[in-house]
Amino acid sequence: MSKFTKIAFNKGELNTQLSQLFSDMLENNAVDAVLAPMAQPKKGVMQTLVTSKENLASMDPFAPVMPVNSAKLVSSLTSTPSGKRIAMVLRSCEVRALVELVKLKQANLEDTLLIGMDCHGRYENTDFLKFQTKEGTSEGFLEGALNGKTESDGFDVAGACKICEYPEAPNVDIRLCTIGSGNGTLYLEAVTEKGEEALTKAGTKFADGPGGRADAVKKLAAARAEARDAVFASYREETGDFNALDDKLSACINCYNCRVACPVCYCKECVFVTDTFRHKGEQFINWANSKGTLKMPTDTSFYHLTRITHIAAFCVGCGQCTSACPNDIDVMPIFRTSAEKVQARFEYLAGRSVDEPQPLSVFDSDELMEVTGQVK
Amino acid sequence: MSEKKPTGKVLVAGAGISGIKAAIELAETGYQVLLTDASTQVGGILAKLDYQFPTDHCGMCRMLPMVGREYSSEYCMRKSLYHENIEILPFTEVVNIEGDAGNYKVELKKKARYVNPDVCNELGKCIEACPVEVDDEFNHGLTKRKAIYKSVPHNVPQLLLIDKQSCTECGECVNVCSTNAIDLNAQDEVESREVHSIILASGIKLYNLRDFEDAKSYAVSPDVVSSLAFERMLSGTGTYEDGMIKRPSDGKPAKKIAWIQCMGSRNRRQNRDYCSSVCCMFALKEAVLAKEKGGPDVETTIFYMDMRTFGKNFQRYKENAVEEHGVKLIRCRVQEVIRKPDGTLQVRYFDPLTNEFFFEYYDLVVLSTGQAPFEDHKKWAGLIHTDLDPAGLLTTEPYSKVKLAGKDGLFMCGSLMGLTDISEAMSSGIAAAGEATNFLTSLDVSRKFGDDTPEPKTNDRSAPKVAVLVCQCGEFAGAEGLDTKLLETELRKVKDVEAVHIVESMCSAEGEQEALEALKKSGCNRLLIGACQPYMYRRKLKDVARKAGFNSSLVQVFDILGVSRRGLHEDDKTAWTRRAIKEIKSDIASMKEKPALHVQSQPINETALVIGGGISGMQSALSLANRGIPVHLVEKSAELGGFAGNSIASTIDGLAPMEMAKDMKLRVFEHKKIDVHLNAQVEQTEGTLGSFESKIVYNGNGEETKPIYLHHGATIMATGGHEGKTDEYGYGQADNIMTQFEFKQGLESGEIDLSETENVVMIQCVGSREKGKREYCSRICCMWAMANALKIKEKNPDTRVFVLYRDVMTYGFLEQYYTKARLAGVIFVSYDLENRPEVEIVEGKPVVKFTESVLDRPLEVSPEYLILSTGVDPEPSNKDIAETFKVDLNRDGFFMEADSKWRPVEFQQMGTFLSGVAHSPMPLPDVIMQAEAAAQKTFTYLSGGEIQTARVTSSVKDALCVRCQRCIVVCPFEARSYNEMEHRIDIDPSACQGCGMCAVACRNNAAEVSGWSDRQLMSVIDEKLSDDIELSTT
């Protein structure tokens, strides 16, 4: 059963209070290090690994930006264990991607203390810089978001965030709760024993949680799910056949940024940069011959289709792929729509549970009978 | 191996699954096999079964070899079988056997087919032309065939033949045959062959509704069919169509189906005092399938006497059939079946529980027809000059199910031993091959592996140069109409094709020579051959190529007459040529990307480790040691012999386990090749097939003994089992409540005196066949009960013996003891789980209360002895052993074999085998048979000096691998493992079967199956998607 503690903060004090909390954790040996979004010296907010409490002052976890999906960072930190306990402040999509990477043996939760923050969305990286320039603050963003307003001057949170039905992070030890908490208030929720122990060490006293939080989360998730369904429907309409999909992807230049940004694309070296796709000159001529023309670079749609087959079972919908595209191709809905169907078929949900086996990772002789032709 | 020694030759008479298995095992061991079958096909009964228990799929190919795959074909076994060392002669009868052990001369009558299969192009025009229509035997008369026909619809190649009895010799077929394949005047040919040893595997004749008198009161309508005919009604090549099981009389869907068990079997009056063993499971499977294939509204009922679910996991299958699939079971005797005017079938039966007659109506009645074994036995007895036993069966050596009595070098397997299920057919086939190998080892004969032409060296880096060789099939006009000129012109245009050669006929010696010369001159390094029936000729064609300097893996054979023509209109020759060109071009595209693949040989440590020193373990050890294989025999107790060998003096079928074990112990201790380790256990093991290292620890007498490390190439688990314990029915509360075993020992030692005994009660299935307890049948308790009951009756005929049972499991020829017990006056009373006997202890003595079903009243008996059949438990040590060897246990604690039907004595983990009660409870002769089979499998792998891995196996590119280990979990052959020390994926190439699951699971081609790279496949796709060539008429 979850335990809560309330943090009330005056204007401009949210980050100070949070810094104090993590400082207490380090001081009391609850963890050895903290990974959290920190304001960078000049501009921007980036995930930063901190081992001494003196350096926690620039902490800013609620800043509406996510330069990378941190699941990959956690993978780097934990796949060969350091033996040090690290508190990690992550968004829902980061935790869910991390769960998939753990199952793929690319990360390991043994020494982690996962702290999930309620997520109201993130701006695109360039938009966030504009937001900062105009003196936008995390507290200001939170206040607006809690009143249903996330947009700033001329920009809003990313498309993926608007249709994300998981504002609350699952599978974490501690939650930073803003939804249903009221203005100027943050609740800490100890979700697991590990979380409770860490907070206790940091000197936290537990009390009642925010009333009505569950309903508020549910309501927000429902609204976003509705938006999601609308996006899915129109996207499916637009990409009804291969040619339509091909058109959507026609500006692709094989930069592979979407793959680099994708938290669950976990290969060491992508097959598209190996010899398999280093075609001979003769091959290009043959292709051109068969249709009269050949758009270059080649293998662009093939690349995205391959990505669909590779990640549809693991995609958590963080939308980093769309954010990474230099040519403004909105690729996120391709993966989200295909992921929805694939995951439903396997009764699987990426990020839901560490114990649930991933589709096609277990051998079951009696499955997918509609495609194997088995009679049963 | 001296060169002059002849290769050992074995005749396997009968090509059902047990014969095939024996043949494959011998061929793998390096002997030459003649595999004959009197029928027109190979595969026996199984060729007719599309679905097999327990998976309800086909799994026949699982009997193919796992190692050394290069020397056999890996095709669907229901289509056909090919192996370098096996010569298959279907439609051939053994008509004479002369000579003796090691030197048999056999006469084989090859029956005339009237169609020459070498020439026939399988287009089937003759079948269309034939005006004669008769019942098709393959479908049990449910469908019609012509006088010229394909005997099995799914064989490859299609071997056509003419049924001369129905043929009117009108000659229509001869007229339409373009290849002159038909000769109506063909004659049977008798051929004489010499072999060293013979295995009889001709199976049994099945009880037949038409031939047997006692079937008449049931077979009253075409809608009463045999169980085998019902299989054909479930098959797409039978009468199953549009999701409908069709009633034979009117083609309407059969929605209510009844099975009547024991048809022809368990009938003493007809001199058939045996059970056919397989029909209960067969009927359960059919009833489950009927619902799956005929729709959920199909109702299925099985009328039975005893539901004999005695085999491993059978009980569970039955429970599942009843609980999950709603199969209804009614225990009764069916009196008769009457055909009503509207075609429905009225089944009248007597319910012994209520003492009432009932009527029930069905659309279809299936008679579970069993075996009628004696005819073949009589024939064989005549041929091998031996006498039959009083029951009319061939006799075997004591303790052996496969060695014929007094006939060295003669063995039998499969249903000739009495109808067997698939698993027993497999074990017996392997065991018979094992005994034959044993026998051949004692002769001056050699073994032969692979062929002699060495594989030419290849330079993997040289640019691809492709030669194409096309056979025109000149001899038989098979390729008439194929425009080879155009073919040649078009292929010459393809990049990297350096030579195109058209040969008149590759079948002729001149053709072969011509091809050889041309290929030698070509200077190419890759070769594509277009020819007919590559299934049959691939080997020969590849040999020619190899002689010309081509590496086998860079030679591809393309079926130019068959595949490229399939589905096209016969007269459309342009389409045929165009298709052929396109197919060849895509093959060329793939070959250009293909690297040369090599067979790797892994050295083998020829020592075997046997765990368990009971009868099974000793048998395996002796069998291997006698063939020169060094054996370590590890026994955890201080003594060899195991449960049976140390405590069972006699069995009902006249065997004496203790005496036998005593003799075996002597031979084991004296054998130079066997090292016995007593008080020893395997604590740790590492390695793969051919090279294991195991740590043995000793725990005897509290003495400090150092562990030792053994090196061995394979392991046999023979851990056995022991009598189960119980606290039910007052056991432990009174001296005269005892187990069957305790009672038997009391009788044998004379401690139990029956002279004053009035009543004895036995309760069967104590703690067995029940959820949460022993969920299986222990198979031997019914026999023990019969033995003890008969002993009691013999000592004191006045003693009343009650046997309270659920199902009497006296399967096979054991049925005679059940009959004997009933005749001796033993009273059998059935009970079920809802209505079980109750035991009360009154003044220190048991009082048993139960319901006597015939009288239908409760009885109370105060027996002098209450005897409980407590079943067989697996050894608790199995758990540790399973963990050590990375093999699995089933839910009951017995070891789990690689495949419950097709690979009963092997584990999925290569190089580990199992036998005896470690597998499941079984009687002594079966233990011996399995031990022999496990020894044979071990021998095959260990005796070759090395193991040849297949060319097509998968590999890992370490630099690309992210170690996500998905490939490990998906590998169905456990060929992959994670090496923690080196932090990488390891592959056991001898275990890898090249299935490609890992390559699918791997995202970035770190796992790749050799010869199936993405580049190859993409080239093929590109070629197939390319535009059709413009055909300029030449």
Account of the protein in words:
The complex is a heterodimer of chains A (376) and B (1034). Helix content of chain A is 40%, strand content 11%. Chain A is of the alpha/beta class and 376 residues long. Chain A has two domains: 3-227, no CATH class; 240-372, no CATH class. In chain A, helix 3 links the parallel strand 4 and strand 5 (112-117). The longest helix of chain A has 26 residues, at 213-238. The model of chain A has no long low-confidence stretch (mean pLDDT 93). Chain B has 1034 residues and is an alpha/beta fold. Chain B folds into seven domains: 1-111 and 188-204 and 373-450, FAD/NAD(P)-binding domain (3-Layer(bba) Sandwich), CATH 3.50.50.60; 114-187, Alpha-Beta Plaits, CATH 3.30.70; 207-370, FAD/NAD(P)-binding domain (3-Layer(bba) Sandwich), CATH 3.50.50.60; 466-591, Rossmann fold (3-Layer(aba) Sandwich); 603-720 and 875-944, FAD/NAD(P)-binding domain (3-Layer(bba) Sandwich), CATH 3.50.50.60; 725-871, 3-Layer(bba) Sandwich (FAD/NAD(P)-binding domain); 953-1010, Alpha-Beta Plaits, CATH 3.30.70.20. In chain B, the strands form 16 sheets. Chain B has a five-stranded parallel sheet, covered by helices on one side. In chain B, helix 1 (17-29) runs parallel beside helix 20 (924-942), helix 8 (422-441) crosses helix 20 and helix 12 runs antiparallel to helix 23 (1014-1025). The longest helix of chain B has 20 residues, at 422-441. The mean pLDDT of chain B is 90. The A-B interface holds A 104-106, 266-271, 274-276, 282-283, 286-287, 290, 310, 358, 360-363, 365, 374-376 and B 55-57, 292-293, 495, 959-966, 969-970, 972, 997, 1000-1001, 1003-1006, 1013-1015, 1018, 1022, 1025-1027.
